Amino acid sequence: MTKQDRAVRTRLALIRSAAEQFEARGYVRASLAEISAGAGVSSGALHFHFANKAAVAEAVEHAAVRALRQVAVRGRGGDGCALQRLVDLTHHVARLLCADIVVRAGLRLNAEAVAGRVRDLRREWRECVHELLAEAERRGELAAGMPPHRSSAVVLAATTGLEVLAREDPGWLARPSLTDLWHLLLPCVAAPQLAAALEPAGTEPDPGRKAEETDGAWEEPGRAGLALR
Known about the structure:
- The protein is an all-alpha fold.
- It is 67% helix and 0% strand.
- It has helices spanning 3-29, 32-39, 43-49, 53-76, 82-99, 101-111, 121-138, 148-165, 175-189, 192-195, 211-214.
- Helix 1 packs across helix 2, helix 4 runs antiparallel to helix 5 and helix 5 runs antiparallel to helix 7 (121-138).
- The longest helix has 27 residues, at 3-29.
- The protein is elongated.
């Protein structure tokens, strides 16, 4: 392994360790000593990569942003029924949150405005949902009386609520929970002729295959294959 590869692995180990500390203890109580110990490196190695705790938090948040955007881009850019793509996208994001502690910690830091230098992720989620629902309206997929701004409010309230509840109990983001949510929402949001054809559980097989969401999802740009396993 080259010196550069070791440096990349050390940085990724520090990001993961920091995410664990931020999720377990919060930003204020997490310490640089605990972060470096969790990564199995010295304090000097940590300071080689990050000037202070704020810089570590920013790195965690940016890593989470990259992973979430990869999932969102796939959902927004697909073909076929826009409502089904929205359902599938919520399942993708839920799996990512369940599987990846860096994404969970980054979302929490972003909500608390700790790092403060990346875009508001909840605003990005709002825009993503509204974009898919606006497309659904153009395709005639929405129920009468449910324009995008109204259906967006319902979907956003429900999905954000699940994400917040899952901080204490990850079961809120399990596939059955999200499927139950869509069973309730789709008859209200979807046009009657379409509702029965939509799949509330998503159209992909239930993945025990974390690989799609987690393998390399948050590695540094241009460093594919070097993410910690």
